[in-house]
Amino acid sequence: LAFCRGRIVRVPKGPLIRVVGTEVEIPCSVSDYDGPSEQNFDWEFSRETDFVRIVSTWDSTFTSEEYQKRVGRGDIKLRRSSNDAVELVIGNIQPTDQGRYKCSTPSTDATVQGNYDAEVQVKVISDGLSVTGSKSRSSSSLRLSEGDSFRLRCSATTTSPEHTHLHVTWQIKSGSTWRDILSLTHEGKFQPGPGYEERYRNGDIRLDTGANDTYRLSVSQASSVDAGAYRCLVSEWVRGVDGSWQKIQEKSVEIASVSIQRTDVVISTSNVSVTERDSLDLMCNITTDRSGIFQAEVMWYFSASPDDVLSDAQLLLSMDRDSVVSDSTLISLSHVDRNSYRLLVRDVDVEDSGYYFCEAAIWVPLHNGSWHKVVERTSAPVSVVVTALEPDYEVFLNASKIPKFSDDPTELNCRITNAQDTEANIRFTVSWYYRQRLRSDDVVTEELLATMDADWTLLPGDRSRERIQNGEIIFSKKSADTFNLRIQWTSESDRGDYFCVISAWSRHRNNSWVKSKDVTSASVNIFWATQDYTLTVEAVKLKPFFVAGHTFEMTCKVSSKNIKTPRYSVLITAEKPLTDQSNPNGTTRIISLNQDSVVRLEDWTDQTRVDGVVLEKVQENEFRYRMYQTQISDAGLYRCVVTAWSPGGGGMWREAVNGLSNPIQIDFQTSG
């Protein structure tokens, strides 16, 4: 197979119909060529048979004398659109420019093949397009209120000898550029501009045709975006031989300047601070220059956050356009004057703190007697802070019982003093705290022992939870102004600083209680010095000489230090000579007396002398031991083993220290 390939030069299919006085652009392109990518072009013109040279991209001497002035002034020029395409631009085309235009490309090909030029017929027709606006001076400047409707009108006609179509576009300029609002195209279709699609679908933007070739723009529900200059832009189109549409000219006329007075809704007061039980007074003002009949619908909203949308906010009160107010006990809404609406909240509570919004809608009457809402606006939020009525009081903490030893009780009283403004809607609770006192500079945070909520329910802290459950720590309310903390048995780990916090609670309208104030007491230090326990036991033999068969008698006197209310238990032991085979260990436990004065025989096994040994308490710190009918086998060293006990928690006894007396010897060999 062999393929034929060659240069192709293209121009639009003619005839090209153009309007006198307009700028004409005739494109020309080349493809399928050899040589450099950037191609050159020559343009020539013929009214009948001979072609006259107009302009060239590569030869400055190409232009004939007939066109030199127009080319020199720039009325005729070439505009390159790419390496292989240019446009012949003729400004202000005249009837004498009607004829055939030929575009040629000098050959850069290795072989001559294809077409190197192309012609197009241009037909110049008279200007028959007329675009006019309203001659009324009042319609050239419109001052409207937000939500109003307005209409603008322009006329467009053509007397073109060709079969042309008009394309009408309404435009607005609010800055430096014109923007399309709505068009009726040359194909008879309505086309909304960018951003106007929804308003066109809703019927708020319309374009209607009328008698005398008029085109009317109707705008409903005008807003601030509709302010600006308006013009009517009309272009004339003709269908080419290839069926495509070509715009042959365009004209515009400015119709009106429209200003929109914005309707604002503002709350006249900025941030507000009121005291609990007072009244909150807010004013909602509607700013509008509307002079005709209108009625307002007003709604007040409350929200905890300024960023909440109205759907999430709480509707407080509303007034419809007939001034009918929704029902409320503590809130009222009144119409003060034409554009002002007052919200009054009586007996405010702390829970009324938040953000208040005012929403207003303007309604105007229609010709059929119904009402139409033209605008709706919401005010910026106003912050309202309701300050609680704080009762005035002081807190005093004292220790009614201070421990001197471990296991002593501790009792603290937290008392409310100099209380003022403590009405029936005020309730007091207490929180107890402990803080360990360190000798270094280390910071120790306080530990919560227990607290009360608003209904006086006790909530234990982690430190004291188990001891509270065991009854070792007791919290109580002695009177209306006094709270009590009692540690039944104080341990060394309880030493430190104690303080209390009295909280005042206020009762709100919904009978809930909200904390309004905390007052902290000075701290009370619980401390006692700890010293080592000491115990001394002295044994004394009452009869220095005796013989077998007589009674042996000795006393033990006990003295102690740093032991709280001690009691003593006593054990009598005997160390027998190593020759005594009855007790190979050497020491025998004979008899004991515990701290409750209960006597017990220990290792005394002589059945013939069951009542032969006696141990008794002579005084609080003196004990006497007797052994009747002594025998040779009783020889040995006798001692008192004493244990000191102090009272512990829960009525129990706690072992404090042990002591051993000096030995008392029974030796029959040396007895007289």
UniProtKB/TrEMBL annotation:
Coiled coil: none annotated. It holds the Pfam family V-set. Its main location: membrane. Gene3D superfamilies: Immunoglobulins. One of its GO terms (cellular component) is membrane. InterPro entries: Ig-like_dom (IPR007110), Ig-like_dom_sf (IPR036179), Ig-like_fold (IPR013783), Ig_sub (IPR003599), Ig_V-set (IPR013106), IgSF_V-set/TM_domain (IPR051102). It comes from the Eukaryota. It is a single-pass membrane protein. It is found in: Membrane. Residues 21-103, 106-254, 263-360, 391-520 form the Ig-like domain. This is FPRP regulator. It comes from Neodrepanis coruscans. The gene is Ptgfrn.
